[in-house]
Design brief:
The protein is of the alpha/beta class. The protein folds into three domains: 31-299, inorganic pyrophosphatase (n-terminal core); 325-428, Diaminopimelate Epimerase, Chain A, domain 1 (Roll), CATH 3.10.310.30; 441-546, OB fold (Dihydrolipoamide Acetyltransferase, E2P) (Beta Barrel). It has 17 helices and 16 strands. The strands form three sheets. The chain has a five-stranded parallel β-sheet, sandwiched between helices. The protein has a five-stranded mixed β-sheet with strand order 6-7-8-10-9. A five-stranded mixed barrel has the order 12-13-14-16-15. The chain is globular.
Length: 558
């Protein structure tokens, strides 16, 4: 089954399929072609050996926190007593990117080297100031660069022009990991590790895996191998911060998987920057005290619950604004703004709106004369390319093709809304706008078994670029059903067919269609679920239609 699904996904070469299913860290791309890696490694080693204060200037999200924690712990292991500090911006006070006041504060305490984590590649003005003040800046980033790179000491970004490193979709923490590889090789060549190769980097892959999954980069190539090995590391020996996050998330360490990281651990770690002081995230990950880690994790758990309530409030307000505004059919892009919306959750709500309406979505907070917020793409619309064309209206922008952040004068909102809508309409012109679900294979319910699941497990980790397989089963009967979750938002049902019976759940759905004969064709993903130590199979429903008439294609309509 796994081989059939791989072929359907375009992986037909036997060697490529074998690396996909059985790849190990030995299959990683060599890190050393990364542009500026040797130069950055040399400067970092010299600074650590010379006792220079080193500031890690990290983004406020989980990618930034894990990347900063990786480099902090690695340098502390190599150079005990090294003066390494972590700074993460406050999302609502500072916003994104390097800020002049923080750079000035660093200069006052003698910092001569700054390493950015998950940011910096578009901070030309701030890095120019730092260079003029005698501070070397090593940029580690994975966002799309602008036309002009900042005048940093070294730029590590696989997306920059002239960088031969093949893995262009690394998360920020992945770029940091390559820098760690460069530092270790440099020291090994200098004979710093007599009798050995130096510290193992495997123990840092738990952090790389968490940051990679939380940042939703494609889980193909090196990213997939990072996450696969990182999950193995977590299950064997989790650091105090990880154990604390597992504890408050209700996750068993020995069975943690990428879904847990994406939907339970990552959101709690991200809550550090969404709701309050982002440095709690990196502090949680670097502490060697489980008690301290648990106190921070419990605080983030509380913050995440608040974030969920705030997200629901803003979602309701956004939907109400859409209902009272122009007809949705007239909009190719959705742009909404409000003074009462919290910056920390706008990206999440924008993502949900983009998924629901299959249009690029922008949610902005208006604060005085400025509007700031988040954008999410839909159906492949190239966000950053579109923002580049609208840059005269913006004071700041940056991000990926799928997600971005902007700031602009509030007075420019009408022109921005019109310009983005025009760009989205042009992009959509001639395309089939109907959302489609890619079906990986057709399987009778009798084919869903433990052995079948073993085959699918070989395709893990699942995520962006390697989504969980979507399967089709026909002529399925629906038995008992019930609602669960807050306000009965989710559906649980008993499904049967081919002599088999399964429990199924459909999230954000309260009913199933009915048709002639009462049978359904369903799209679903089979999953293991754990309760009180017992493992059982259930189906996660993606869509359902009344069964097709004889002779019709069962996939029709999906």
């Amino acid at each position: 089954m796994a081989s059939r699904i791989l072929v359907n996904r375009g992986i037909s070469d036997p060697g490529e399929a074998d690396r996909f299913l059985n790849g190990t860290l030995n299959d990683l791309s060599p890190p050393f072609p990364m542009k500026d890696l040797e130069k950055a490694s040399r400067r970092l080693v010299d600074a650590a050996r010379g006792g220079e204060p080193i500031l890690l200037y990290a983004d406020y999200d989980a990618d930034g926190a894990t990347g900063a924690a990786c480099l902090f712990l690695f340098l502390s292991e190599l150079f005990p007593g090294a003066d390494v500090r972590i700074h993460q911006n406050h999302r609502t006070v500072d916003g994104y990117g390097l800020k002049r006041d923080h750079l000035e504060a660093a200069a006052r305490v003698g910092v001569k080297l700054i390493v950015t984590v998950d940011g910096g590649v578009t901070d030309e003005e701030a890095i120019r100031w730092a260079s003029g003040a005698g501070i070397d800046v090593i940029v580690t980033d994975h966002h799309l660069p602008g036309e002009v790179l900042p005048p940093g000491f070294a730029i590590l970004n696989p997306k920059q022009k002239g960088c031969p490193y093949p893995g262009k979709d690394l998360a920020g923490v992945g770029v940091v990991f390559l820098l760690m590889c460069g530092v270790r090789r440099l020291m090994r060549e200098e004979g710093a590790f007599p009798g050995g190769d130096g510290p193992s980097l495997r123990k840092y892959l738990d952090l790389v895996a968490l940051g990679t999954v939380a940042d939703m980069v494609p889980l193909r190539g090196d990213n997939r191998l990072f996450v696969k090995a990182g999950l193995e590391e977590m299950r064997l020996r989790a650091r105090p911060g990880m154990r604390a996050l597992f504890s408050v998330s209700g996750i068993a360490q020995e069975t943690v998987n990428e879904t847990d990281l994406a939907f339970r651990v990552g959101p709690r770690l991200n809550a550090a920057g969404r709701v309050g002081d982002a440095t709690r995230g990196s502090e949680l990950l670097v502490t060697d005290s489980f008690g301290r880690a648990l106190r921070i994790a419990e605080e983030l758990h509380t913050d995440n619950a608040w974030r969920q309530r705030e997200e629901e409030r803003i979602m309701r307000a956004a939907l109400a604004a859409l209902e009272s505004g122009p007809p949705l059919s007239s909009l190719s892009a959705i742009v909404l703004a409000d003074a009462g919306w919290h910056m920390g959750v706008l990206g999440i709500v924008a993502s949900k709106i983009a998924q629901r309406y299959h249009r690029p979505a922008v949610l902005l907070q208006i604060n005085g004369d400025e509007a700031r917020g988040s954008l999410r793409s839909a159906d492949g619309f190239p966000l950053v390319e579109a923002l580049s064309g609208l840059s005269p209206l913006l004071t700041r922008y940056g991000g990926h093709m799928q997600a971005a952040g902007i700031a602009l004068p509030a007075g420019n909102l009408p022109a921005f809304r019109e310009g983005l809508d025009r760009a989205a309409r042009t992009y959509a012109s001639g395309r089939d706008g109907a959302p489609r679900v890619e079906v990986d294979a057709r399987v009778p319910l009798s084919g869903i078994s433990g052995r079948f699941m073993e085959e699918l497990e070989r395709m893990r980790p699942f995520g962006m670029g390697n989504e969980e397989p979507v399967l089709l089963a026909s002529n399925v009967r629906v038995g008992r059903r019930s609602l669960f979750g807050g306000e009965g938002r989710h559906l649980k049902a008993e499904l049967s067919g081919n002599g088999c019976r399964f429990e199924a759940v459909a999230f954000h759905r309260s009913e199933l269609p009915s048709g002639p004969g009462g049978s359904l064709d369903i799209l679903f993903t089979p999953q293991w679920t754990f309760f009180r130590g017992e493992r059982s199979l259930r189906l996660r429903l993606i869509d359902a239609r009344p069964s097709q008439l004889p002779g019709e294609r069962a996939m029709q309509g999906f």
